[in-house]
Amino acid sequence: MGRLGSWIEPFPEGIYVKPADAWVDPMQPKAKALVTHGHADHARGGHEAVWATPETLAIMGVRYGEQNEQPVAYGETVRVGEVDVSFVPAGHVLGSAQIVLDYQGERVVVSGDYKRRPDPTCEPFVVTPCDIFITEATFGLPVFRHPDTGAEIDRLLARLNAEPERCVLVGAYALGKAQRVIKEMRLRGHDAPIYIHGAQERLCNLYQELGVDLGELRLATGVPKDELRGKVVVCPPGALNDRWSRRLPDPLTAMASGWMRIRQRARQRNVEFPLIMSDHADWDELTTTIKEVAPKEVWITHGREDALQHWCMTNQIKARALHLVGREDEDD
Ligand SMILES: [Zn+2]
Ligand SMILES: [Zn+2]
Protein backbone atom coordinates (compact mmCIF):
# COMPACT_ATOMS: atom_id res chain seq x y z
CA MET A 1 0.00 0.00 0.00
CA GLY A 2 1.13 3.57 -0.66
CA ARG A 3 0.67 6.61 1.51
CA LEU A 4 -0.86 6.09 4.96
CA GLY A 5 -4.64 6.29 4.72
CA SER A 6 -4.69 6.40 0.91
CA TRP A 7 -7.97 4.44 1.08
CA ILE A 8 -9.71 7.30 2.89
CA GLU A 9 -10.72 10.28 0.80
CA PRO A 10 -12.03 13.49 2.40
CA PHE A 11 -14.52 15.60 0.47
CA PRO A 12 -16.21 18.81 1.68
CA GLU A 13 -19.47 16.82 2.00
CA GLY A 14 -18.02 13.97 4.06
CA ILE A 15 -15.33 11.29 4.32
CA TYR A 16 -15.32 8.58 1.65
CA VAL A 17 -14.03 5.12 2.60
CA LYS A 18 -13.08 3.60 -0.76
CA PRO A 19 -12.79 -0.14 -0.01
CA ALA A 20 -16.17 0.01 1.80
CA ASP A 21 -17.75 2.24 -0.87
CA ALA A 22 -19.27 4.05 2.10
CA TRP A 23 -19.31 7.60 3.50
CA VAL A 24 -18.86 8.82 7.07
CA ASP A 25 -21.39 11.54 8.04
CA PRO A 26 -22.21 12.53 4.45
CA MET A 27 -24.19 15.73 3.97
CA GLN A 28 -25.83 14.39 0.78
CA PRO A 29 -27.84 11.17 0.35
CA LYS A 30 -25.56 8.18 -0.34
CA ALA A 31 -25.95 4.43 -0.90
CA LYS A 32 -24.03 3.60 2.31
CA ALA A 33 -23.66 6.02 5.22
CA LEU A 34 -21.77 5.42 8.47
CA VAL A 35 -23.11 7.95 10.97
CA THR A 36 -21.28 9.04 14.14
CA HIS A 37 -24.25 10.67 15.91
CA GLY A 38 -27.67 12.22 15.49
CA HIS A 39 -26.89 15.97 15.17
CA ALA A 40 -28.11 17.38 11.87
CA ASP A 41 -24.62 18.45 10.80
CA HIS A 42 -23.65 14.73 10.79
CA ALA A 43 -26.86 12.72 10.34
CA ARG A 44 -29.03 13.43 7.33
CA GLY A 45 -32.05 11.66 5.91
CA GLY A 46 -32.31 9.97 2.52
CA HIS A 47 -29.46 7.43 2.57
CA GLU A 48 -30.12 3.97 1.13
CA ALA A 49 -28.59 2.30 4.18
CA VAL A 50 -27.31 3.67 7.50
CA TRP A 51 -24.82 2.04 9.87
CA ALA A 52 -24.97 3.61 13.34
CA THR A 53 -25.53 2.73 16.99
CA PRO A 54 -29.11 1.71 17.89
CA GLU A 55 -29.51 5.00 19.83
CA THR A 56 -28.38 7.13 16.89
CA LEU A 57 -30.73 5.20 14.59
CA ALA A 58 -33.59 5.84 17.03
CA ILE A 59 -32.76 9.58 17.05
CA MET A 60 -32.61 9.60 13.23
CA GLY A 61 -35.93 7.75 13.18
CA VAL A 62 -37.55 10.55 15.21
CA ARG A 63 -36.17 13.15 12.81
CA TYR A 64 -36.26 11.46 9.40
CA GLY A 65 -38.70 8.58 9.72
CA GLU A 66 -38.20 5.07 8.34
CA GLN A 67 -34.83 4.09 6.90
CA ASN A 68 -32.78 1.01 6.07
CA GLU A 69 -31.09 0.55 9.46
CA GLN A 70 -27.89 -1.39 10.09
CA PRO A 71 -27.49 -1.16 13.88
CA VAL A 72 -24.01 -1.65 15.30
CA ALA A 73 -23.71 -1.77 19.09
CA TYR A 74 -20.66 -0.36 20.88
CA GLY A 75 -17.85 -2.90 20.66
CA GLU A 76 -19.41 -4.92 17.83
CA THR A 77 -17.54 -5.22 14.51
CA VAL A 78 -19.23 -5.50 11.12
CA ARG A 79 -17.82 -5.90 7.65
CA VAL A 80 -18.71 -3.19 5.11
CA GLY A 81 -17.19 -4.01 1.72
CA GLU A 82 -13.59 -4.92 2.58
CA VAL A 83 -13.41 -2.85 5.76
CA ASP A 84 -13.99 -3.90 9.38
CA VAL A 85 -16.10 -1.23 11.03
CA SER A 86 -16.75 -0.79 14.73
CA PHE A 87 -18.34 1.90 16.88
CA VAL A 88 -16.77 3.17 20.11
CA PRO A 89 -18.34 5.72 22.54
CA ALA A 90 -17.49 9.38 21.86
CA GLY A 91 -19.05 10.94 25.00
CA HIS A 92 -20.79 13.65 22.96
CA VAL A 93 -24.55 12.84 23.07
CA LEU A 94 -26.62 9.67 23.57
CA GLY A 95 -25.49 7.04 21.03
CA SER A 96 -22.56 9.11 19.75
CA ALA A 97 -19.67 7.06 18.43
CA GLN A 98 -16.20 7.22 17.03
CA ILE A 99 -16.09 5.05 13.92
CA VAL A 100 -13.13 2.67 13.83
CA LEU A 101 -12.09 1.56 10.33
CA ASP A 102 -9.63 -1.34 9.89
CA TYR A 103 -8.29 -2.14 6.43
CA GLN A 104 -5.14 -4.03 5.41
CA GLY A 105 -3.40 -3.49 8.73
CA GLU A 106 -4.17 0.23 8.99
CA ARG A 107 -6.57 1.68 11.52
CA VAL A 108 -8.37 4.98 11.07
CA VAL A 109 -10.62 6.43 13.79
CA VAL A 110 -13.18 9.09 12.86
CA SER A 111 -14.04 10.74 16.17
CA GLY A 112 -17.11 12.66 15.04
CA ASP A 113 -17.80 15.22 17.77
CA TYR A 114 -16.56 14.28 21.23
CA LYS A 115 -15.80 15.43 24.74
CA ARG A 116 -13.89 13.94 27.67
CA ARG A 117 -15.65 15.29 30.74
CA PRO A 118 -18.42 13.23 32.38
CA ASP A 119 -21.91 13.45 30.88
CA PRO A 120 -24.64 11.57 32.80
CA THR A 121 -26.69 11.12 29.60
CA CYS A 122 -24.18 9.12 27.53
CA GLU A 123 -21.32 6.64 27.58
CA PRO A 124 -17.85 8.13 28.19
CA PHE A 125 -15.26 8.53 25.40
CA VAL A 126 -13.03 5.50 24.88
CA VAL A 127 -9.43 6.04 23.78
CA THR A 128 -8.70 3.88 20.73
CA PRO A 129 -5.10 3.82 19.49
CA CYS A 130 -4.85 4.14 15.70
CA ASP A 131 -2.70 5.20 12.75
CA ILE A 132 -4.85 8.15 11.70
CA PHE A 133 -7.07 10.03 14.15
CA ILE A 134 -9.65 12.20 12.41
CA THR A 135 -10.73 14.79 14.96
CA GLU A 136 -12.93 17.84 15.24
CA ALA A 137 -11.49 21.14 16.54
CA THR A 138 -14.58 23.20 17.40
CA PHE A 139 -12.84 24.69 20.44
CA GLY A 140 -9.32 24.27 19.08
CA LEU A 141 -7.75 27.35 20.63
CA PRO A 142 -5.85 27.52 23.95
CA VAL A 143 -8.28 30.22 25.20
CA PHE A 144 -11.05 27.63 25.27
CA ARG A 145 -11.09 25.91 28.65
CA HIS A 146 -14.56 24.88 29.75
CA PRO A 147 -15.26 25.28 33.50
CA ASP A 148 -16.56 22.50 35.74
CA THR A 149 -20.12 21.62 34.70
CA GLY A 150 -21.40 20.95 38.22
CA ALA A 151 -20.22 24.38 39.39
CA GLU A 152 -22.02 26.04 36.47
CA ILE A 153 -25.26 24.22 37.32
CA ASP A 154 -24.90 25.14 41.01
CA ARG A 155 -24.52 28.80 40.07
CA LEU A 156 -27.73 28.67 38.06
CA LEU A 157 -29.73 26.84 40.74
CA ALA A 158 -28.52 29.40 43.32
CA ARG A 159 -29.92 32.19 41.13
CA LEU A 160 -33.22 30.30 40.80
CA ASN A 161 -33.52 30.02 44.59
CA ALA A 162 -32.53 33.65 45.14
CA GLU A 163 -35.27 34.98 42.85
CA PRO A 164 -38.32 32.75 43.36
CA GLU A 165 -40.70 35.22 41.65
CA ARG A 166 -38.94 34.65 38.32
CA CYS A 167 -38.45 31.55 36.22
CA VAL A 168 -35.13 30.45 34.81
CA LEU A 169 -35.32 30.01 31.04
CA VAL A 170 -32.46 27.90 29.66
CA GLY A 171 -31.75 27.86 25.93
CA ALA A 172 -30.34 24.45 25.00
CA TYR A 173 -30.17 22.48 21.75
CA ALA A 174 -32.87 19.84 21.47
CA LEU A 175 -30.53 16.88 21.05
CA GLY A 176 -28.12 16.27 23.90
CA LYS A 177 -27.72 19.65 25.58
CA ALA A 178 -31.33 19.94 26.78
CA GLN A 179 -31.29 16.47 28.33
CA ARG A 180 -27.85 17.00 29.85
CA VAL A 181 -28.89 20.28 31.50
CA ILE A 182 -31.97 18.58 32.96
CA LYS A 183 -30.04 15.52 34.14
CA GLU A 184 -27.27 17.62 35.72
CA MET A 185 -29.94 19.56 37.66
CA ARG A 186 -31.50 16.29 38.85
CA LEU A 187 -28.12 15.05 40.05
CA ARG A 188 -27.68 18.28 42.00
CA GLY A 189 -30.92 17.82 43.89
CA HIS A 190 -33.39 19.82 41.78
CA ASP A 191 -36.40 17.50 41.75
CA ALA A 192 -39.27 19.91 40.96
CA PRO A 193 -41.01 19.45 37.60
CA ILE A 194 -38.98 20.96 34.76
CA TYR A 195 -40.92 22.62 31.94
CA ILE A 196 -39.92 22.11 28.32
CA HIS A 197 -40.75 23.71 24.98
CA GLY A 198 -42.83 21.55 22.61
CA ALA A 199 -39.90 21.28 20.17
CA GLN A 200 -37.96 19.32 22.79
CA GLU A 201 -40.65 16.86 23.76
CA ARG A 202 -39.95 14.02 21.34
CA LEU A 203 -36.22 13.77 22.00
CA CYS A 204 -36.70 14.09 25.78
CA ASN A 205 -39.22 11.25 25.59
CA LEU A 206 -36.82 9.18 23.51
CA TYR A 207 -34.00 9.70 26.02
CA GLN A 208 -36.33 8.53 28.80
CA GLU A 209 -37.38 5.48 26.73
CA LEU A 210 -33.70 4.66 26.17
CA GLY A 211 -33.07 4.67 29.91
CA VAL A 212 -31.95 8.23 30.72
CA ASP A 213 -34.20 9.24 33.63
CA LEU A 214 -34.95 12.96 33.39
CA GLY A 215 -37.54 13.11 36.19
CA GLU A 216 -40.88 14.85 35.77
CA LEU A 217 -41.08 16.96 32.62
CA ARG A 218 -44.08 19.10 31.68
CA LEU A 219 -44.86 21.04 28.56
CA ALA A 220 -44.50 24.78 29.24
CA THR A 221 -47.00 25.86 26.61
CA GLY A 222 -50.36 26.95 28.01
CA VAL A 223 -49.25 26.73 31.64
CA PRO A 224 -50.48 29.65 33.84
CA LYS A 225 -47.75 32.20 34.61
CA ASP A 226 -47.85 31.67 38.37
CA GLU A 227 -47.16 27.94 38.07
CA LEU A 228 -43.83 28.77 36.40
CA ARG A 229 -42.49 31.08 39.12
CA GLY A 230 -39.39 29.56 40.70
CA LYS A 231 -39.28 26.88 38.01
CA VAL A 232 -36.84 25.90 35.28
CA VAL A 233 -38.02 26.12 31.68
CA VAL A 234 -35.89 24.67 28.88
CA CYS A 235 -36.34 25.83 25.28
CA PRO A 236 -34.45 25.82 21.97
CA PRO A 237 -31.97 28.74 21.70
CA GLY A 238 -34.14 30.32 19.02
CA ALA A 239 -37.10 30.63 21.42
CA LEU A 240 -35.14 32.51 24.13
CA ASN A 241 -36.18 35.93 22.92
CA ASP A 242 -39.19 35.26 20.72
CA ARG A 243 -42.90 35.70 21.36
CA TRP A 244 -43.12 32.31 23.04
CA SER A 245 -40.93 33.40 25.96
CA ARG A 246 -42.83 36.67 26.55
CA ARG A 247 -45.61 34.78 28.33
CA LEU A 248 -43.21 33.57 31.01
CA PRO A 249 -42.96 35.24 34.47
CA ASP A 250 -39.96 37.64 34.21
CA PRO A 251 -37.59 34.96 32.90
CA LEU A 252 -33.90 34.96 33.78
CA THR A 253 -32.49 34.12 30.36
CA ALA A 254 -29.70 31.54 30.37
CA MET A 255 -28.00 29.76 27.50
CA ALA A 256 -26.09 26.48 27.81
CA SER A 257 -23.20 26.52 25.36
CA GLY A 258 -19.42 26.40 25.17
CA TRP A 259 -19.57 29.67 23.25
CA MET A 260 -20.93 31.44 26.34
CA ARG A 261 -17.28 31.79 27.36
CA ILE A 262 -17.23 34.67 24.86
CA ARG A 263 -19.11 37.59 26.38
CA GLN A 264 -19.94 39.08 23.01
CA ARG A 265 -21.81 35.92 21.99
CA ALA A 266 -23.87 36.06 25.17
CA ARG A 267 -24.70 39.71 24.50
CA GLN A 268 -25.67 38.97 20.88
CA ARG A 269 -28.21 36.46 22.11
CA ASN A 270 -29.45 38.75 24.89
CA VAL A 271 -28.38 36.18 27.45
CA GLU A 272 -28.43 37.40 31.04
CA PHE A 273 -26.86 34.24 32.46
CA PRO A 274 -24.19 32.52 30.32
CA LEU A 275 -24.09 28.82 31.33
CA ILE A 276 -20.76 27.59 30.00
CA MET A 277 -21.40 23.98 29.12
CA SER A 278 -20.17 22.29 25.99
CA ASP A 279 -20.58 18.89 24.35
CA HIS A 280 -17.25 19.38 22.58
CA ALA A 281 -13.70 18.89 23.77
CA ASP A 282 -11.96 22.07 24.92
CA TRP A 283 -8.29 22.76 24.11
CA ASP A 284 -6.94 20.58 26.94
CA GLU A 285 -9.27 17.72 26.06
CA LEU A 286 -8.30 17.88 22.38
CA THR A 287 -4.57 17.84 23.04
CA THR A 288 -4.81 15.23 25.84
CA THR A 289 -6.86 12.99 23.58
CA ILE A 290 -4.35 13.22 20.74
CA LYS A 291 -1.53 12.38 23.17
CA GLU A 292 -3.44 9.35 24.50
CA VAL A 293 -4.56 8.07 21.09
CA ALA A 294 -0.97 8.58 19.86
CA PRO A 295 -1.69 8.42 16.13
CA LYS A 296 0.90 8.72 13.35
CA GLU A 297 -1.27 11.39 11.72
CA VAL A 298 -4.06 13.71 12.80
CA TRP A 299 -6.63 14.88 10.29
CA ILE A 300 -8.83 17.77 11.40
CA THR A 301 -12.39 17.94 10.07
CA HIS A 302 -13.66 21.35 11.15
CA GLY A 303 -13.35 24.13 13.70
CA ARG A 304 -10.15 26.02 14.59
CA GLU A 305 -7.90 23.80 12.49
CA ASP A 306 -4.85 26.09 12.43
CA ALA A 307 -4.00 26.15 16.12
CA LEU A 308 -4.45 22.40 16.55
CA GLN A 309 -2.46 21.67 13.42
CA HIS A 310 0.34 23.85 14.76
CA TRP A 311 0.22 22.09 18.13
CA CYS A 312 0.50 18.70 16.37
CA MET A 313 3.49 19.85 14.38
CA THR A 314 5.31 21.11 17.46
CA ASN A 315 4.62 17.69 19.01
CA GLN A 316 6.05 15.84 15.99
CA ILE A 317 2.68 14.58 14.77
CA LYS A 318 1.82 15.01 11.10
CA ALA A 319 -1.42 16.97 10.78
CA ARG A 320 -3.72 17.96 7.97
CA ALA A 321 -6.87 20.15 7.79
CA LEU A 322 -9.74 18.64 5.81
CA HIS A 323 -12.07 21.66 5.67
CA LEU A 324 -15.35 19.75 5.79
CA VAL A 325 -18.31 22.04 5.26
CA GLY A 326 -21.58 22.56 7.10
CA ARG A 327 -20.38 21.31 10.49
CA GLU A 328 -21.12 22.85 13.88
CA ASP A 329 -24.54 24.02 12.71
CA GLU A 330 -26.58 22.42 15.42
CA ASP A 331 -24.54 21.77 18.48
CA ASP A 332 -21.95 23.36 20.69
ZN1 LIG B 1 -22.58 16.93 17.36
ZN1 LIG C 1 -20.94 18.54 14.75
From TrEMBL:
Its EC number is 3.1.-.-. It holds the Pfam family RMMBL. It comes from the Bacteria. Residues 2-173 form the Metallo-beta-lactamase domain. Keywords: Exonuclease, Hydrolase, Ligase, Nuclease. InterPro entries: MBL (IPR050698), Metallo-B-lactamas (IPR001279), RMMBL (IPR011108), Xnuc_lig_assoc (IPR026360). GO terms for molecular function: exonuclease activity; ligase activity. PANTHER family: BLL1145 PROTEIN (PTHR11203:SF49), CLEAVAGE AND POLYADENYLATION SPECIFICITY FACTOR FAMILY MEMBER (PTHR11203). NCBIfam families: Xnuc_lig_assoc (TIGR04122). This is Ligase-associated DNA damage response exonuclease. It comes from Sphingomicrobium clamense.
